[in-house]
Amino acid sequence: RRSADTEIDWKAYMQEVEGFANGTLDYTQLKGDTGPLVYPAGFVYIFLGLYHATGRGSDIRLAQYLFAGLYLLNLLLVFRIYCRTNKVPPYVFFFMCCASYRIHSIFVLRLFNDPVAMAILFLAINLFLEEHWSWGCLLFSLAVSVKMNILLFAPGLLFLLLQRFGLLGCIPKLCICALLQVVLGLPFLLVNPVGYLTRSFDLGRQFQFKWTVNWRFLPEEVFQNRVFHATLLLAHLAGLGLFALHRWHRSYAGQLGSCCGIIPPASCVCPLNASAWIVFILFSSNFLGVCCSRSLHYQFYVWYFHTLPYLLWCTPTTKLAHMPKVLLLGVIELCWNTYPSTVCSSLTLHICHGLILLQLWYGTAPTPVSHTPPPSRKPTAMSKKAQ
């Protein structure tokens, strides 16, 4: 299927990389019909390859076939992660594959760069689960170079690196991430370093109110207010701090210790294996960022769609509790399929996010340790008689 929307997004991407193909290395001069290029250098190289593979972007049908293959690869990587954790019931995979029109549109119809970044990210997580941390960090940095939303996973990854390698041990891994960014951006950094950094890593970029999915119920002046943005940032940092101190730290350390033969201090409500806790920390880190995002556009749904089943089912579930979780997935899908977004759809989306956060917080809380009195050392009458 092909639509005018496909041509708008694809054409803009091709125009942005065409300048680089013609020798332009000043990042501020790379632009398309929808505006200037605002993605890091990894995006340029990947879509430059697509530019040449599709006859300078003219063969949109071939591009859609390539993105269909990317969609299948992405599912394979996600399924492999879920199989390692063994927390999600098999029937949920049906909803992940077949029940989201919006995700199919983002991949195959609209040809956005978001699914490219997420596929690389899921490959990096697979490498983390296989204990290939250096290669995983390299792929993680590559995903960041395609789109910066991958940085929402960064707090969780930093926590895992500190847990796994310690402060000094994680420095080489962080250097791998930084070095790749320098190497990819070097042609542009040598020509106009300020232009490259301000364009590709612009954290203060304003979003258009007409495209927001999550803040439609706010007045536009509040949506664009810097104080509101600062409040969301503080809420994000507070959420990360609370989870790191009270959910990630205790739970992950205890479960990792049990897998290494060390007796954990206290059992948790949600007994996950080491792989499951790695995934939980990364997925919850990203989810906290999504909840506190200044704006979510329709293509941003792919940022966390494939993580939602895990976040819902990683906590204890009785047989009767499966249906509310499936219903929650359906309501979130309905919110993202409401175009344009409404006050009701954006409020409902926040309610769903809040319910998931509450479940993650209370479902992974450590159980209180029962303090049993030590046995009395006073010998009983029988023991005296035995003596």
UniProtKB/TrEMBL annotation:
Region (Disordered), start-end ranges: 368-387
Top-level enzyme category: transferase
Name of this chain's protein: Dol-P-Man:Man(5)GlcNAc(2)-PP-Dol alpha-1,3-mannosyltransferase
Membrane topology term: Multi-pass membrane protein
Pathway(s): Protein modification; protein glycosylation
Domain of life of the native organism: Eukaryota
One GO CC term on file: endoplasmic reticulum membrane
Pfam families given in the database record: ALG3
Membrane-spanning residues: 37-53, 65-82, 111-129, 135-162, 174-191, 227-245
Cell location: Endoplasmic reticulum membrane
UniProt EC number: 2.4.1.258
Keyword annotations: Endoplasmic reticulum, Glycosyltransferase, Membrane, Transferase, Transmembrane, Transmembrane helix
Purpose of the protein: Dol-P-Man:Man(5)GlcNAc(2)-PP-Dol alpha-1,3-mannosyltransferase that operates in the biosynthetic pathway of dolichol-linked oligosaccharides, the glycan precursors employed in protein asparagine (N)-glycosylation. The assembly of dolichol-linked oligosaccharides begins on the cytosolic side of the endoplasmic reticulum membrane and finishes in its lumen. The sequential addition of sugars to dolichol pyrophosphate produces dolichol-linked oligosaccharides containing fourteen sugars, including two GlcNAcs, nine mannoses and three glucoses.
GO MF annotation: an example: dol-P-Man:Man(5)GlcNAc(2)-PP-Dol alpha-1,3-mannosyltransferase activity
Catalytic activity: an alpha-D-Man-(1->2)-alpha-D-Man-(1->2)-alpha-D-Man-(1->3)-[alpha-D-Man-(1->6)]-beta-D-Man-(1->4)-beta-D-GlcNAc-(1->4)-alpha-D-GlcNAc-diphospho-di-trans,poly-cis-dolichol + a di-trans,poly-cis-dolichyl beta-D-mannosyl phosphate = an alpha-D-Man-(1->2)-alpha-D-Man-(1->2)-alpha-D-Man-(1->3)-[alpha-D-Man-(1->3)-alpha-D-Man-(1->6)]-beta-D-Man-(1->4)-beta-D-GlcNAc-(1->4)-alpha-D-GlcNAc-diphospho-di-trans,poly-cis-dolichol + a di-trans,poly-cis-dolichyl phosphate + H(+)
Species annotation: Alaudala cheleensis
